[in-house]
Amino acid sequence: MVGTKNSRQVLDCGNHIRTFQPDHTENQVKMELKNKKVLVVGFGKTGKAVCDFLISLNRDIKIKISESKKEQAVNEEAVLYQKRGIPFETGGHTLQWFLDADLIIPSPGVPPIPPLKEAERRGIKIISEIELAFSYLKGKIIGITGSNGKSTVTSLVHSILKDGGFKSNLAGNIGTPLISFAEKSSEDDIYVTELSSFQLEYVETFAPDVSVILNITPDHLDWHGSFSSYLLAKTKLLKNQKKDQTAILNRDDPQVWASRKQGPENIHAFSMKTKIRKGCFLQKQWIILKNKEAQKAMNIKDIPLKGIHNQENIMASILAGHVFGIPLDKM
Known about the structure:
Blueprint: E1 9-11, E2 17-19, E3 37-41, H1 45-57, E4 62-66, H2 75-83, E5 88-89, H3 95-100, E6 103-106, H4 114-121, E7 125-126, H5 129-136, E8 140-145, H6 150-163, E9 167-172, E10 189-194, H7 197-201, E11 210-213, H8 221-224, H9 227-239, E12 246-250, H10 254-258, E13 266-271, E14 279-283, E15 286-290, E16 294-299, H11 308-323
Parallel strand pairs: 3-4, 3-6, 4-5, 6-7, 8-10, 8-11, 9-10, 11-12, 12-13, 13-14
Antiparallel strand pairs: 1-2, 14-15, 15-16
Helix pairs in contact: 6-11
């Protein structure tokens, strides 16, 4: 295995090299937004990126922006967009703005506020920024989620790919909004994307080429309403993947492992407790990478970040590099 620049090779279930075929752009259908009334809810980093992308499409999209902060908090930005003829409300959310929209794109930090719930009840289309990006983005997406550790793993995978000669981009919660790459994306790009349950809540077709689920424990229940709703959002990462795409899953987490039935056939697992046929496991202080043959990947004594969770994070990161054909001595 050689991680040459722009290589598109990975190991299959055997030990020989095959071309990395799975690609979300293969059957990509760009979302038709011409003359649509689009409401962007929230005007932080993601909301601004969405607005800028919609403007760049030059499709006569009727954009409105609704922000809960008082006007002075976003005044300078508000004026810039108002000069472009974009209505911009601050200090609250007007229900009628939501009901008049053809499409609503809430920012990740926006909770399920009453106007959003009412719009959803009336069948108005609501999508997240990553869903919009998925419709237009070229290249490959690695989607990483989990209740804990996703920032660490996203950073590690990005570094592994970059050092392996790939054109890796840090995206999502930890980096740049995914939509910011859409206008100038290329087939050579890889987007290593940290994804929260908030971002996954409003996806319909989003399907990363490689999904990574680290763990799922009760979190953000005030936002999602229940653990089952939170779990549903997290596992949406897998649901739209094609059979020949890839999932990297925590074998030791019962919720994560149960979700494998919803995803692709090509699963790489990692475990601190169980020997894995295809994936990573712990054996006598060594992280073992197993496909057909077992290879010593790393001694856990050499991991600077302490704790079992960080050993799991390393395993997931090694597997992501492995999927893209990067040899262990290049990680």
